[in-house]
Amino acid sequence: MGLELRQQLKLSQQLVMTPQLQQAIKLLQLSRLELLETVQQELMENPFLDELETEAEVHDSSEKLTESQAEEELVRNADWENYLGEFSSTSKQATARDAEVPEDGLSFEARLASKPSLEGHLNWQMRLSNFTDQEIAISEIILGNLDTNGYLQASVDEIRLMVQASAEEVEDLLMRIQRLDPVGVGARTPQECLLVQMEVLGLDDPILVSLVKDHLEDLEKNRYKPLARKFKLSMDELKEYLDLLQTLDPMPGTNFSSNEPHYVSPDVYVYRYGEDFVIILNEDGLPRLQMNTFYMDSMKGAADKEKEYFQEKMRSAAWLMKSLYQRQRTLYKVVESIVRFQREFFIDGVTKLKPLILKEVAEDIEMHESTVSRITTNKYVSTPHGIYELKFFFNSALDLDDGSQVGSESVKALIKQMIAGEDTKKPLSDERIGEILKDKLEVNIARRTVAKYRSAMGIPSSSKRKQYF
User: Where's the RNA polymerase sigma factor 54 DNA-binding domain (predicted)?
Assistant: First the structure.
């Protein structure tokens, strides 16, 4: 059979992701702060985009300018020496220099003090102590192998090979570092960390030392009665030892951890007004865009190449404005649909959250599920019961005896409430929690499902929650 080249005509349809469509999809899944950055970047790059200022903003800016000029005049001409009288601690010349605002020219970041790191805090102490240059070089390798809790993640042999030192030198330096602030940092095990702190504090009771060396796992699992029998202690005497151990810090490096709280700016506000709910999009700081008339007028006399560039930028600006409007409109429709489906939640709270899936909202607003998924990503809504991510309102269902369903998040909230109000000396088991849910809600939930929900909320088992004192 011979090979030959042949031409064929074929008609087919396919979806082409144009740059404009990609941009519209990207805008859907951006958070509010990311959206602000994107719009500001487009304002800088596209000459056809312009920010619209309202009359109120123009009026406010002129008033602020007048006030700032008046404040500068007051600082320049005020007789602060006579005003302060005997409480003045500076001369008139120094006051004049202060009025020059020495912070002018400094960046905002330069005026802020950074949070000290664990490595920097220990390095500072070593340089103020009698550490030699060679010892500081070895110690810096040790500090570089500490985790966020302050524990050493490398062995002495590994450190010795990295710095070409003996094992005795590394051990000696490690012992000195462990006695810096915070005490116990650089330990390899929780036992070593606690024993170092006990040594520094002078806690050398043999029973206390044995509890830390050999029985930390028993203490973690609340095995108090066997310990009391072994050391021939009453439960009250054992409690005194436990109270003493509670004063120690098994994770000395956490105070220097770089983990910062995550602040959320809600994209939507939902307010209750009588029996209805009002939905307001958070557009604070979001520029109002318009086409720049100057560049549009200059297109008329432009050359062909310039006109082609202008037309491309003009289409890009118009598409961005249209995409922003579509994003805000979609977000409003999705939140409006969620409020309809989860009305009882917005009235009574999380225990009334109903099961909901993306498909139900998509059918309600006549959009595709992928669009609903994108618009609910990294978006937050402020409700009468707190701030929640939009994904929170979509949860699985559990069947009730009467044939209806209840949302899994509602069940989680009830489990959390029951555990918060339990008797700590007789905590509720997972099986007992399932029985209570069966009696109160008539919900069919297995013990393993209760255990799964409890673990997802970070709540320990009943044996670990039990308190003997």
Answer: 308-467
